[in-house]
Amino acid sequence: MSCLQSWPEPIVRVQSLAESGITAIPDLYIKPPSKRPSPPNTNNHRDADVNIPIIDLQNLLSDNRSLREATMRSISSACREWGFFQVVNHGVSHELMKRARDTWREFFSLPLEVKQEYSNKPSTYEGYGSRLGVEKGAILDWSDYYFLHYMPPQIRNHNKWPAVPTSCRKLIEEYSEETIKLCGILMKVLSLNLGLGEDQLLDAFGGEENIGACLRVNFYPKCPQPDLTLGLSEHSDPGGLTLLLPDENVAGLQVRKGENWVTVKPVPNAFIVNVGDQTQVLSNAIYKSVEHRVIVNSVEDRVSLALFYNPKSDLMIEPAKALVTNVRPALYSPMTFDEYRLYIRMKGPCGKAQVESLKSYE
Fold first, then answer.
1. Of the candidate ranges 43-57, 103-117, 199-213, 234-248, the one whose mean pLDDT is the lowest
2. 180: in domain
3. What share of the chain is helix, strand, coil (3-state, %, to 5)?
4. First CA to last CA across the chain, in angstroms?
5. How does 53-75 read in b/e, with b if 16+ C-beta sit within 10 Å?
6. How many structural domains does the chain have?
7. Ordered DSSP codes for 39-91
8. Does any domain span residue 40?
9. Maximal CA-CA distance, the chain
10. How far apart are CA 75 and CA 241, in angstroms?
11. DSSP for 299-338?
12. Omega of the bond prior to 40 within 30 degrees of 0, cis?
């Protein structure tokens, strides 16, 4: 990993650029025309009311078998057809969700010299960052972020977590515990929906005590030329499952559906869930991770929190044996998550190039 010890160029904080009063963005944020967001008047008007599935989880624990199975079918359909869905009545305190957003918004409002104390390096990405990938001269995204590790417990480094606001470290613990618990429930449902044992996917990840989990808080500053750039370039998530707490008031996440990009409309007090590449591999592509990206706007900043639920980093991930048949051979060769995410850390967001490159059979 020695090649990842330092960034190839001086780091510029996007928030500082945005707050400097510039009226044109620097060239290194301008995307090629084919990668820019579509102007509003070119969007298909029939897609204006399309949204990813919204699933009420309250019946997952119901004694009524038909209600429970209907919810599971909805999740299965969303994983197969969209790779994304929103969940309500998920068991996480709405007050905790609000505090999480507010506290991190407060962090990003701190003076730059305070935030700089937590500047990250590409060796772990942990801390305050402004770019992904170490390719010199790469076109960058219009965002800053804070990345930290939470699971397994032995890799937590509280010194890497912000000491201000004073509530931040305690909140990270509380929020991470609750969202990891929800991810564990969803993993059991995904496993059962594949016809596997309830804990089979979770066990493939290393079990509850050994799973990997990390938090990425995204800050997307307002942008004077939002039609030329993206807050986050198109990509699929490299891990297992992502639980996103979006900004309720400002839409920005777009999900690829066929040839179109659907702008997700956040539902109050909902999480957005999406399938990651490792779950695509384990399911032998029955579930698919889906490309998504983030657009920015000229009026408002946005804050979102992504909890990544991942395999233990040194475990070999390959299609579940029960899902490999003569008709559907194993589509992917075994690889550890450590090996897999090194590609992302080198290249930055790059569509679905990584997971597609793993295919061992067509």
1. 43-57
2. yes
3. 35, 20, 45
4. 32
5. bebebebbeeeeeeeeeebbebb
6. 1
7. PGGGS-GGGTT----EEE-GGGG-S-HHHHHHHHHHHHHHHHHTSEEEEES-S
8. no
9. 61
10. 13
11. S--EEEEEEEEE--TTSEE---GGG--SSS---B--EEHH
12. no
How far, in Å, CA of 71 to CA of 53, rounded? 12
- The DSSP 8-state label assigned to residue 161 in this structure reads S
pLDDT at 45: 43
Using alpha carbons, select from 299, 306, 298, 294 the residue that is nearest to residue 251.
Answer: 294
Residue 329 belongs to a domain: yes
Please give the pLDDT value at position 346.
65
Q: Name residue, tokens 């990891």.
A: 180
Residue 292: give the domain boundaries.
2-35+46-357
Centre a 10 Å sphere on the Cβ of residue 261 and count the other Cβ atoms it contains. Answer: 18
pLDDT by residue (tens digit) across 130-149? 998 888 899 999 999 999 99
What angle do helix axes 94-108 and 168-193 make, rounded to 10 degrees?
130
pLDDT at 348 over 70: no
C-alpha–C-alpha distance, residues 198 and 189, integer Å: 7
d(CA 114, CA 119): 10
pTM of the model as a whole: 0.93
Which among 77, 37, 22 is positioned nearest to 53, based on CA atoms? 77
Given a cut of 50, whether residue 62 has pLDDT beyond it is yes
Please provide the DSSP assignment of 243-300 as one string: EEE--SSS--EEEEETTEEEEP-PPTT-EEEEE-HHHHHHTTTSS----EEE---SS-
Question: In angstroms, what CA-CA distances link 15 with 125, 133, 182, 213, 308?
Answer: 18, 19, 32, 27, 24
Q: Is residue 362 part of a domain?
A: no
Between the alpha carbon of residue 311 and those of residues 213, 229, 279, the distances in Å are 8, 32, 9
